[in-house]
Amino acid sequence: MSHNLHQFINKNSKSIPIDENGTFKFTCAKQCWGTCCREDNAGLLQLSVYDVYTFLNTEPEVPALDLIQVKIDEETNLPRAFIKWREDKTCPKLNEDGTCSIYENRPFACRLFPLEAKFFINDRDDSIYPKYVVRENVCFGFRKEANPEIQYLKTFLNTPDFENHLKYEKLEISYRDKWMKKYQIKNLKSEQIHMLAQVLYCLKEKIIGKKTYFFDLYSEMLKIPKRTKRIESFTADELSKLSLEEFAPRLLEKFNV
């Protein structure tokens, strides 16, 4: 079977909203050969802060920015992290046989496939809620030849692991919203945004006590204490507090925002 993604993508693929009682037909088929793990589906591989920690921990000897890339969200001007593609435009964790080498620890967006989640903030009580869409016909798993099965959204999402990831996504979005209001992030200069991005997505080295050029340069300025607690022992809440409350505000204050 060819690895060519375009063999399996229907050019008329589209995203269909689905409610909490909705269903869709899909199966994860071997014939896909990692269709969902290529740059063609770049939106799929957007990473939360928690995803980045987990992802980096699979190869602690590799520099963080060799595994991830940071882009600025055009709507919020906030940094978002993505898996850094190989030269052949595939995920660095994709095996030659089309399987995932970190399947048990794969990012939140990968667990959702073929769904996409968009999060919204309720202005009345500041609660955060997701809305889902199905990315129909985006891979072989939707085709009749794959014998797709009926998937129930509630069943698809109702797992402890998924709930943990969803909880962290909500935490991250909540803090981002507070940042925008408190620090007027939209007014930051581009170089300030990129520095903030590095703080958000390159914390693993500091958490486990490893020295890097980035933290040698900024730790003293920000008065960041050395941390010996290993990444595996942090809860999602603790990581959220560390990255979104402690590091970023200190950096922003240095810019007198």
Explain this structure.
This protein is of the alpha+beta class. The chain has one domain (5-249). Helix content is 36%, strand content 16%. It is built from 9 helices and 8 strands. The chain has a 3-stranded antiparallel sheet. The chain is globular.
In terms of topology, how is this protein built?
Layout: E1 14-18, E2 23-26, E3 46-47, H1 49-57, H2 64-67, E4 68-72, E5 79-83, H3 108-112, E6 115-121, E7 128-136, E8 149-152, H4 153-157, H5 160-183, H6 190-201, H7 204-207, H8 213-222, H9 236-254
List keywords for this structure.
single chain, 257 residues, alpha+beta, three-stranded antiparallel beta sheet, disordered N terminus
Short description:
This protein has 257 residues and is α+β, with helices and mostly antiparallel strands. It has nine helices and eight strands. The termini are far apart.
Instruction: Please report the distance between the alpha carbons of the first and last residues.
Output: 54 Å
Whole-number count of domains: 1
Strand content: 15-25%
Spatial strand sequence of the major β-sheet: 1-7-6
Tell me the series of helices and strands, N- to C-terminal.
Answer: EEEHHEEHEEEHHHHHH
Choose one word for the global shape. Answer: globular
Radius of gyration: 19 Å
What would you call the structural class?
A: alpha+beta
Query: Unreliable segments (pLDDT under 50, ≥5 consecutive)?
Result: 1-12, 213-218
User: Averaging pLDDT over every residue, what do you get?
Assistant: 69
Specify the number of helices: 9
Main sheet: strands, sense, barrel: 3 strands, antiparallel
Q: What percent of residues adopt helix (DSSP H or I)?
A: 25-40%
Overall strand count: 8
